[in-house]
Write a structure and sequence with these properties.
The protein has a six-stranded mixed beta sheet with strand order 6-7-8-3-9-10, sandwiched between helices. Strands 2-1-4-5 form a four-stranded antiparallel beta sheet, covered by helices on one side. It is an alpha/beta fold. It has two domains: about 325 residues, ABC transporter transmembrane region fold; about 130 residues, P-loop containing nucleotide triphosphate hydrolases (Rossmann fold). The longest helix has about 50 residues. β4 and β5 form a beta hairpin. It starts with a helix and ends with a helix. Bound molecules: adenosine-5'-diphosphate and magnesium ion (MG). The site of magnesium ion has 2 residues, from α13.
């Protein structure tokens, strides 16, 4: 019962999307009814044709018949075209609207949501599920309206010819309805499972495509293939189950209908019956009954298609109903100076019990550089993602120029902060557009060249035939790691934000790129407040404040020489990491 309930409300919500396209939709329905009416009308002329044309040899009537056939089929074709076109027109509009909403919703969802849902799963919401709603719903609609109108027409025709013979249909109709409702419940269940399985297929394929190189180098080919085989096969099994249920129900219903047909033929053989029927009428009744089988079969599965569409719609709506990133702040920050303070801050990731940060306290004055050092997993990246409020802080506060970041609007807060992470994300566009990505305001050619120069991007871009206008391919595949980083640095330089969050790359670069990046970084660190997750000795040594992290806590703080003099955790960490080089 609850599934019916929820599918009813899902349906109502889906209808809401139809509002703007209801004219096209209405025309489609009229087209379908017209299409069915032509068919019924055609059949209703059979008795005349047989009784008047063939039996009584009415020549005028027989001469008219061929013309009528062509006219009728012309009309039928026009109705069919209008119905298909209009239905598809409104259907594609709805798919487009849903996709756009999903896309924008996913943009607006908090980072924690994306942490918990795989890219493959989310992509399949936008591609497969959205399309499924249209496919299934329009199929259900065509069957319901077109075949429904056809069935009603046929029944009317039968009853008009002989209600005694036709009454048998009133007996089998409830039996069929019973089977339909049972079957559809099962269908909904299987459809739901199938959607989940489809999500697994895409997410597993996506994982393979993203990690292709890693899989090759670690010899994981057979493992991945086997894992995929499992989800792939469970998807197939569900598909078979769905089809088997469908086929079985169709067969059962047809057998039941055949009993009705047999009974009618038996009844018609009684002399009293034969007296009331002309050969034309009898032909019409039998033909109607035969013709009823196909739409009846389709009407049986209409609910399954409808349920499939509703299941897809329910999944799509569940994404649309997710709470977007909370932007409770109302304060619009102008350009801040860049004083940062973390006050009594503790944190655990949403949905995880483990406390990742414990009672963090520190402050940085504008223009200074803080280096976060510590073993991996100690909470450095977490600190850097809390500053731009990628996650909500529940305990303690973060102040920017003395203003609680919670009180600021997300847009204005994030405008203050440039983030350069280890994982440089580049877009499939030119170098210039990648540097200018998200830049608001007037951008002159000189300004762009200036940052490209400062970030040492020109050194390699200058050698390319199209310079900064060179296309770099998807995620910058044509560039080396060092080149990608320099583009990211240029992007941050251009924004001139007062605060910089920098996650230095740990991966070893060759000394040449290392030197170039260092030079670019030095330029970037100038004149702003920097929060650096530091791996390079030079960054650490030059930092105004070093925070040594261990298991979510700041265990030591001070500058390089102070900390070395303490001869504690930092000193041992330093020896371990830079022992040979120092
Ligand atoms: P570091 O940057 O110092 O290596 P992190 O801040 O990345 O450390 O991680 C600190 C802890 O938080 C680790 O135990 C890690 O497993 C956990 N963690 C990191 N990111 C997430 C996340 N998105 N969801 C849940 N736990 C996370
Ligand atoms: Mg990290």
């Amino acid at each position: 019962m609850s599934t019916h309930q929820s599918s009813a409300s899902t349906f109502r919500r889906l209808l809401g999307y139809l509002k703007h396209y209801r004219f096209g939709f209405l025309v489609a329905i009229l087209g379908m009814i017209g299409y069915a009416s032509v068919d019924v009308f055609f059949l209703s002329q059979f008795d005349q044709f047989i009784d008047r044309g063939i039996t009584q040899r009415d020549m005028d009537y027989l001469a008219l018949a061929p013309v009528a056939v062509i006219v009728l089929f012309l009309l039928r074709g026009v109705f069919h075209f209008i119905a298909s076109y209009c239905l598809n027109w409104s259907g594609t509009h709805i798919v487009k609207d849903l996709r756009q909403q999903l896309f924008e919703k996913m943009l607006a969802l908090p980072v924690s949501y994306h942490d918990q849902h795989s890219t493959g799963e989310l992509i399949s919401r936008i591609t497969y599920d959205a399309e499924q709603i249209k496919q299934a719903s329009s199929k259900a609609l065509v069957v319901l309206i077109h075949e429904g109108a056809f069935v009603i027409g046929l029944l009317a025709l039968m009853f008009y010819n002989s209600w005694q013979l036709s009454a048998i249909f009133l007996v089998i109709a409830p039996v069929i309805a019973l089977i339909v409702s049972h079957v559809s419940r099962r269908f909904r269940q299987i459809s739901n499972n199938m959607q989940g399985a489809m999500g697994q297929v895409t997410s597993s394929a996506e994982q393979m495509l993203n990690g292709h190189k890693v899989i090759l180098s670690f010899g994981g080919k057979s493992l991945e293939a086997k894992r995929f085989e499992e989800v792939n096969n469970s998807n197939r099994r569900l598909d078979v189950k769905l089809e088997a249920t469908r086929a079985l129900s169709v067969s059962v219903i047809q057998v039941i209908a055949s009993f009705a047909l047999a009974f009618v033929i038996y009844l018609a053989s009684f002399p009293e019956m034969l007296d009331t029927l002309t050969p034309g009428m009898f032909t019409e009744i039998i033909t109607s009954m035969m013709l009823l089988l196909k739409p009846l079969k389709q009407l049986t599965t209409v609910n399954s298609d409808f349920q499939k569409g509703m299941a897809a719609a329910a999944t799509v709506f569940s994404v649309l109903d997710e709470m977007p990133e909370r932007d409770t702040g109302t304060r619009e920050l102008d350009r801040v100076q860049g004083n940062i303070e973390f006050r009594n801050l503790s944190f655990n990731y949403p949905g995880h019990d483990k406390q990742v940060l414990k009672d963090i306290n520190f402050s940085v004055t504008a223009g200074q550089t803080v280096a976060l050092v510590g073993r991996s997993g100690s909470g450095k990246t977490t600190i850097s993602s809390l500053l731009p409020r990628f996650y909500e802080v529940e305990q303690g506060e973060i102040l920017l120029d003395g203003i609680n970041t919670k009180d600021c609007t997300l847009d204005s807060l994030r405008r203050q902060i440039a983030v350069v992470s280890q994982h440089v994300v580049l877009f499939n566009d030119t170098i210039a557009n990648n540097i200018a990505y998200g830049f608001q305001g007037e951008l002159t050619k000189e300004r762009l060249l200036d940052v490209a120069e400062k970030a040492h991007v020109m050194e390699f871009a200058g050698q390319m035939p199209k310079g900064l206008d060179t296309e770099i391919g998807e995620n910058g595949v044509t560039l080396s790691g060092g080149q990608r980083q320099r583009i990211a640095i240029a992007r941050a330089l251009l924004r001139q934000s007062p605060v910089l969050v920098l996650d230095e790359a740990t991966s070893a670069l060759d000394t040449e790129s290392e030197r170039k990046i260092q030079a670019a970084l030095d330029e970037l660190l100038k004149n702003r407040t920097n929060l650096v997750i530091a791996h390079r000795l030079s960054t650490i040594e030059n930092a105004d404040l070093i925070l040594v992290m261990d298991q979510g806590q700041i265990v030591e703080r001070g500058n390089h020489s102070e900390l070395l003099a303490q001869n504690g955790y930092y000193a041992s960490l330093y020896k371990m990491q830079f022992g040979e080089t120092a």
